[in-house]
Amino acid sequence: MRSKLRRVCLASVWMLAALLFAACGPGLGGTGTGDAAFAAFGASAAPVCGGVVAGALACPSAPAGPPPSTGTLPVQFADAAGQVVLELNGNLARLDDSCLKLHFSGEFGTAAGGVQGFFGSYEIDNNGLDVLAALSAVPAAGGGALTIELHDVQGLPVVGPVLLRRVTVPLLAPNPC
Prior knowledge:
The chain has 177 residues and is mainly beta. It is 15% helix and 39% strand. The protein has helices at residues 2-21, 36-41; strands spanning 43-45, 72-78, 84-90, 92-97, 102-111, 116-124, 131-139, 145-152, 157-166. Strand 8 and strand 9 (157-166) form a beta hairpin. It is globular and about 45 Å long. The protein starts with a helix and ends in an 11-residue tail after the last strand.
């Protein structure tokens, strides 16, 4: 009898956990980190087309007023070797570094002091461990380029700084290292 009760309780806990976490996955328009990354960095969501990088993106033109909340049209940036690739679509970013086997996904936001970036998480070599991180991107001189850096929640550098130029022909995947 105790064994049956224990199984019922365990099954109930698993069902509750599945229901609670079902809306936090990447298939629902988010990054898969929910609000954890924004909370960890003290940030909140903001439209990327209102950020300092807007000039390097494909933001839809809007009449005077606030920037469009829909974000940028899809754009891609890559380093000279094509091994570090940044894709931006809407207010979301995906960074792939073939040498580090790193994949980052994040959403644009603003933190205390006006710090702007993409807040999300990265995974290395599809190991299943998501690490909270922030990707900063600033326009580089000459236009059509960004300098990016990825830092973990302790502020330790993970990637960069790396100069990325906007590509005219999108890469299907980063070039091998």
